[in-house]
From TrEMBL:
UniProt keyword Heme, yes or no: no
Protein name (database record): Ferredoxin
Cofactor: [4Fe-4S] cluster
Organism the protein comes from: Ruminococcus albus SY3
Gene Ontology terms, MF aspect: 4 iron, 4 sulfur cluster binding; metal ion binding
Biological function: Ferredoxins are iron-sulfur proteins that transfer electrons in a wide variety of metabolic reactions.
The keyword Iron is assigned to this record: yes
Record's keyword terms, sorted: 4Fe-4S, Electron transport, Iron, Iron-sulfur, Metal-binding, Repeat, Transport
GO cellular component term, pick one: cytoplasm
Length: 56
């Protein structure tokens, strides 16, 4: 199970900075997680101020 970033994303980039494998990228001010690269570690969810990264 990978994580997905919800519409609650505010584009701060905290999740991308915390991802140990660089699975999070930005486009048009919003972030997305590459499910095939995600380790399901939850680091992104733990650092997001609005709880946008969520387990699928």
């Amino acid at each position: 199970m990978a994580y997905k970033i919800s519409e609650d994303c505010i584009g701060c980039g905290a999740c991308a900075a915390e991802c140990p494998v660089g699975a999070i990228s930005e486009a048009d001010g919003k972030y997305a997680i590459d499910a095939s690269a995600c380790l399901d570690c939850g680091a992104c969810a733990g650092t997001c101020p609005v709880g946008a990264p969520q387990a699928e």
